[in-house]
Please model this.
Amino acid sequence: MASNTIKPEDLQAHKKVKFLDEAKRQPFLLISSALLLIYGIIFYYIPVIGWITAFQDYKPAKGFFGSQWIGLEKFKKLFENKTFYLAFRNTLAMGVINLVFHFVTAIAFALLLNEVRIFIAKKFIQTVSYMPHFLSWIIVTAIVREVLSADGIVNEFLMNVCGNETAIDFFAVKGYFWWIVAFTNVWKETGWNAIIYLAAITAIDPSLYEAADMDGASRFQKMWYITLPSLRPTIMILLLINIGNVLNAGFELQYILGNDVISDVSKILDVFILDWGISQFDFSLGTAAGIFKSVIALILVCLGNFIAKKTGDERLF
Amino acid sequence: MKLKKYGPGDIIFEVFLIIFMVIFLAVTLYPIINTLALSFNDGFDALVHKVHFIPHSPTLDNYKAVFAKEGYRFGAVNTVLRTLFGTLISLVVNAILAYVISRKRFLFKKSFSLFWVITMYVNGGLIPTYITFQKLHLINNFLVYIIPGAVSAFNMLVIRNYMNGIPESLEESAQIDGAGYFKIFYSIISPLCKPVYATIALFVAVYQWNAWFDAMLYNKMRDNLTVLQYELMKQLQTAMKSAGSVEGLKNGGTTITPNSIRAAATILTMLPIICIYPFLQRYFVTGLTIGGVKE
Model:
């Protein structure tokens, strides 16, 4: 009688056999995943272990194991550094401004482009609108500098049309820089960011518009009361994904166009890390600043995910 | 019925729409056209006369000056090489990874997916990565352009999402016929994934073509490992420091300035992308729609 009952260890053994059986059937999956695991550890996980340098007085000659442990001293030094605060503030400010502009312009552009009825015109405008996305940030930075230079088109416009007496030196006034960054991002990415909204618009049920036609709605009303609300789920999920990206406020514009006159508003965390870590060889301080940035970004991602779970069924991961 | 649909509000809306789109096109295209005009214009002449759409004093000397610079020649070779090999390797590796992770019966499916998703949110940052590359002898090495970025969790997820949409029965029937996992990947799944492969190839190729930061950070000491965008960046910095300065050109009476060379180099660098991207639109549109909304 007793032999009929299944003992736990039999079940274990059975599971093991099944596991080995399955393993024999997937050598390709196991071998390639093992190789990719090693790759991932080397290029993604070991650098994270490198965070320990922030708690050491890291000397490249002595390495991870020979360098002296100094606890939180580098973080103390970091938080006492006035430039670090400015860099953090600037990164956050530019990130938030970019985020707001990104959404408002992409949605507005998608809505308006959707109203263009002539197919060829719509296609042409859309093709042109993607183009700046494919240009490198170096090229875009060069373009911004050219357009805003003393004899550039913007100053020409201001002097000839708006009646300005002299050319404005856009890169010598602190108040302009964040907005230059914001408008450059709008110029480069609006068409690209609108793609996903235009795709979502094509999925809207046409019967909604037909019903609105019956009620005599104008085109603007249809856009405002049907198209825009239909995009809400897409907007929400993209907004939440992008919250985690707020601290990635770009790099090239700040790095190349930032100068001593406006460095109080132009310096960002990435430039700060580069200055200290690579140029001044204080690897530990650079790492500490990097950790600070990563932790804040991670908190923002979790916050986004948390809000997504609270507000509805959309989930990021 | 048709006539009734257009009220006065609709006409105002239509006019506003046309004006908006015209301004949009002008703002997007003007800087490009202006750069093109400057690149074909005599450098000194551009300082005196305003150049907008058409070169005032046409010349090819700016382009000749670009081709004469060793940095741009090395840069062009390296940029083409990294774009070709970087794209190819990245595509193969991401496709295999996506395939492995999307197999229902893969023994470590859950833990291995998590392993890669984590990399999207946690990374070592600039300095620890630099130190790691130093230890791996990737500094002053062409391979730093290709190997570290080859696997990207984001690109992998886009491919995986696409593969998840392929019916499982295809895999099962192939298995009954005795096909192993590699065979299924190579001759059944991959041919079906061509559109998403094209999307990822496009994303990676554009990234590789436009990359410059790795050249500055890791390969600054080696002039022969430079890339086009980094040369352009150096030219931009020169142009900023010496705005208005003039370099005489030996043959002929024309002059070039750092700014006029920069314009020519900009045009040459953006040309391949501008020529190719309009034909690949459907690929990046599908790529964004499957990649953007996960799960």
